[in-house]
Amino acid sequence: MKNLLAKKQHKRVIQSPLADNTILVGFAQICSLYSMNCCKLSKVYGPVFTLYLGMRPTVVLHGYEAVKEALIDHGEVFSGRGSFPVTDRVSKGFASPCDPTFILGCAPCNVICSIIFHNRFDYKDQHFLNFIRKSNESLEILSSPWIQICNNFPVLIDYFPGSHKTFFKNIAELKQYFLEKIKEHQESLDMNNPRDLIDCFLIKMEEEKDNPQTEFTTEALVNLVNDLFGAGTETTSTTLTYGLLHLLKNPEVTEKVQEEIHHVIGRHRSPCMQDKSSMPYTEAVVHEIQRYIDLVPTSLPHAVNCDTKFRNYFIPKGTNIITSLTSVLHDSKEFPNPETFDPGHFLDKNGKFKKSDYFMPFSTGKRVCAGESLARMELYLFLTTILQNFHLKSVVDPKDLDITPVARGLISMPPAYQICFIPV
């Protein structure tokens, strides 16, 4: 088995798959690929090493320096989209305890709905409820060990039963719904007065209808809408759900945020983005939530667009690249005691908000999350609005709350918990 990472100065190929800095990952190990502790592997093999996922070599970049050098300094080369076979296939009441997952899923979803459909849904609307259910189920499936196996042995996708079949079925039903909404838009389209993203796309389709090379097609629009919902709804809602769990776990942090809200905003108006610059502690808390939960541990796979030499290693064109965002967000040099939830990681000695180049929950470079700005706004506004109007109460002693993720595949999924929202 050839080692892709032949050192430049020797111009040789390492024959043993375990020699130098190449690691052969077995079938069982693949199940936990996205949640494995790359830190231990990096100590042995360095910040750049190869994992053989099934029969496919993938390069892992570990640590801020390696991730930054690849995605920023060599951003063009490392901007290719890596292979993720399962999703690739898809792309052709008060004062009582409750599970906040549903309501925190509805709010971000309706934000996306207003952008795409020019419409918000009632939380009791059956189409909307079905939409939320299928989206939640699909995300859970994507974070399962079986999907990691399918991604590394794509032949299983067609010939083996499993949860990926449910995933495909859910996405097919969602795409059919999106197609129906697109047809409704076509029937009422005003070329001079676009209402939302679908209208804008349809206008572009009309303008390029005589171009045989156009990428503005109905199929492309359906896939775009599906991607926007998948990337713009579940990630934000999961961060909010996990964020409230950490606020329950750390009531002293919650109290400080509410004190800042009371001082800057008060009780008689809603929070707005202009308030954020005057609320350094709240901004630090939002950043620390994202840093600590490490929502997408390895981001989505990248690929190199051409043969390239990186840190004296040769990486052939098309090689998948895994960037360990965990290794950046939990770097002990930048964030002392990284396994401790501490908003002080983003505050200077004067209590002012402190930016960090290591803050990469949205990845970085040319494939940074396109919805980063929207997500930042949603996280700040939703959390401040909740804490402006409610005290948070746990049904168990905060020190007994379990914050361990129940899954760490594509997404770090928070455990289920109960919370009481007590009106202020």
From TrEMBL:
Tagged with keyword Thylakoid: no
Keyword Transferase set for record: no
Gene3D superfamilies cross-referenced by the UniProt entry: Cytochrome P450 (1.10.630.10)
InterPro entries for this protein: Cyt_P450, Cyt_P450_CS, Cyt_P450_E_grp-I, Cyt_P450_sf, Cytochrome_P450_fam2
An annotated Gene Ontology molecular function: heme binding
Main location: endoplasmic reticulum
GO CC terms, sorted: endoplasmic reticulum membrane
Membrane topology designation: Peripheral membrane protein
Keywords: Endoplasmic reticulum, Heme, Iron, Membrane, Metal-binding, Microsome, Monooxygenase, Oxidoreductase
Cofactor: heme
TM annotation in the entry: none
Short name of any one Pfam family annotated for the protein: p450
Protein's name in the database: unspecific monooxygenase
Species assigned in the record: Sciurus carolinensis
